Amino acid sequence: MAIGYLTIQARTAHDAVPLNGVQIKISDRFGNMLYELTTDESGETMKIPLETVSRDFSVNQYFFGTPYFSYNVLAQASGFNSIYVSDLPIYENETAILPVTLIPMQNAQRTPVLSEITIGKPAVAMNGQRGQAGPASSGYVLRQVVIPDPITVHLGTPSSSASNVRVSFLDYVKNVASSEIYPTWPDAALRANIYAIITFALNRVYTEWYRSRGYSFDITNSTAYDQYFVPGRAIYESVSRIADEIFNEYAKRPGQSNPYFTSFCNGTTATCQGLSQWGTVTLANQGKTPLQILRSYYPKDLEIAETNIIASSVSSYPGTPLRQGSRGLNVQTIQTYLNRIRKNYPAIPVITDESGVFGKSTEAAVKKFQSVFNLASDGIVGKSTWYKISSLYTAVTRLAELNSEGTNLGIGTIPPDATLRQGSRGQDVITLQYLLNVISQYYPSVPAPAQDGIFGSQTAQAVIAFQKAMRLSADGIVGTNTWNALYEAYQGILENVPSQKPENGTITYLVQPGDTLWAISRKYNTTVDAIKSLNNLTGNLIDVGQILKIPKS
């Protein structure tokens, strides 16, 4: 009997918040319940075995059956909407890692909404032609090759009204590779295909193929134009490990900086001038290297380059792996980041080494971090571990910044009564932009606008995306219905997301004695009791989560 494996990771806010206690139910394709699991403090379940078929079928291009068994996963948690993932492929000796990104329920929502995701077969097994827009220059190019982080993916053809989602570039590459090809293929074939996937995406970004045409995204998930991306799908460990190694490497011609246009097709039901996905398996079995495979389909002088410029990265990889015995500022940086991340992921052990000295406790913290985030648990901070630590540090500190901003702004429970549209300015616009920034951490389809108090095109795009997510009229105008939805989503986040709950109580009531706005903890049974308590205070600032005094602006 062939066996594959599955683990589920329930997290939110770009992985910044692990969700403990999520109930997971796994059933087979006939609806029989097989497992009931609960996520731990890192938001992860144990790895479970599942029956499947021999991996030999998925490396044979002449096998026209289904070379895997499919399973279904239901994820439920108090205070969050539920997710049902169906037709999840399991391959022999492969571990599927299913990321479950749960969205907080809105404040007035009584029952969770069930979102359904169907994964199905990869693109290489699909029938019919696929076309990809040609490599001609768009007339726009960036000055240098940059890893877009996040990359914005349009979930449909370019002109469709489908939603956009933002995802880290590394997660995008893993998703596309898991959606395009079989994870059971030989290592050289996987690497050649992943190089093609990375390079294709970077070409779209470098040439600003879509943005130069007025679109608000970098790439689509339509195989008629780009490459296959399935939101919420499982990724496979074999794919994940390779992508971690080469996510910032791409193919180019000598003397050119632009990523080559690496078009591809499956090579059986569809043929093209670019790479044949099934052909890479044949060449890998002949002993060809990934670069030799690429040169079999693209120019013979193609070479592999790399870029360490990653958009939104707080610090660049130093170029040399850090390990036990390393010293210096880079070690201190990693120690600082891990100590902060540990507040959200307490399974990571405390670092007791001297600052800037990579000792045993730093190695132990790195190993546990790597284990939690599906990286090779070797205790060495190479580029994939560095960038994952850096990106997660950015995510957790951004949440903390947003919490602080909300306190300073005095966001209450009653929305402004102003109607805002493009061209509006002022304090109400700042409030709007703040709410959109918080919501964007939990709703992948909502972008985060700059918080400048000016309702420009960026803010309008975020409003429209939010309105679509809430199934409101997507006119970009913030009236009563949109304000109410914003506040319901925001209050739902405060109420349901663990890291967003202030200690000693959740701030929910607002009263206004004199010229001071008071935010009062729910520790009081009624607002009257809270006001009586206020009369006994000296007026000094008291710890947030108990009573916070904020002067009116």
Number of DSSP helical runs: 12
The computed structural class is: alpha+beta
Into which percent range does the helicity of residues fall? 25-40%
Percentage of β-strand residues: 15-25%
The separation of the N and C termini measures 69 Å
Shape: globular
Mean pLDDT: 88
Largest sheet: 5 strands, mixed
Total domains: 5
Number of strands: 20
Which regions have little confidence, pLDDT < 50, spanning 5+ residues? Answer: 501-553
Over all CA atoms, what is the radius of gyration? Answer: 25 Å
Description:
With 553 residues, the chain is of the alpha+beta class. It folds into five domains: 2-120, Immunoglobulin-like, CATH 2.60.40.10; 151-306, no CATH class; 329-402, Muramoyl-pentapeptide Carboxypeptidase, domain 1; 410-499, Muramoyl-pentapeptide Carboxypeptidase, domain 1; 502-553, no CATH class. Helix content is 30%, strand content 18%. Helix 2 (187-206) crosses helix 4 (277-285) and helix 9 crosses helix 11 (480-496). Mean pLDDT is 88; it is low at 501-553.
